[in-house]
Amino acid sequence: MMTLFTTLISFLSGGLPKLLDFFQDKQDKKHELALAQIQVQSQLEMQKAGFQSQEHIEEIRTEQVSIQAQTTERQALYAHDIEIGKGASQWVINMRAMVRPTITYGLFFLLVIIDIAGVWYAWTTNVPFNVMIEAVWDDDTQIIWASVISFWFGTQAFSKK
User: Fold this and answer.
1) 23: in domain
2) What pTM, to 2 d.p., does this model score?
3) Residue 69 is part of which domain span?
4) Which of 9, 129, 134, 145 has the maximum number of C-beta atoms within 10 A of its C-beta?
């Protein structure tokens, strides 16, 4: 009987810190909730009075710093490009500027030529339209073309805020 009693006491005393932590956590959460409610009421009163919260002001400052950093980075990139181009002939400068557009045009014309050849081959061999379109405009082609379009149009759309 004594063994059972001591086992039960030992088992319960092992859980006592967890039980105390539970009640402490409950009190802490109640206190935090009360503080949060007071803070919300304070912010609402300040908004009614026409004041913006400090948090909102800091968000605006952070956004301004981010925009300034982007502007500085872009100016540095332009200055670097100008510095590289100094002393080069106009032909070299123009060729350097046309690298990415040339690759894009090349990919576009390659896609068009392959698609036209695929459609022509399917037409002359009497391949059904649904089979032909799956072969010509497959998942890999869609992924490559989406990457090219996303690069050219997505970078400019996301860089403007």
Assistant:
1) no
2) 0.42
3) 50-96
4) 145
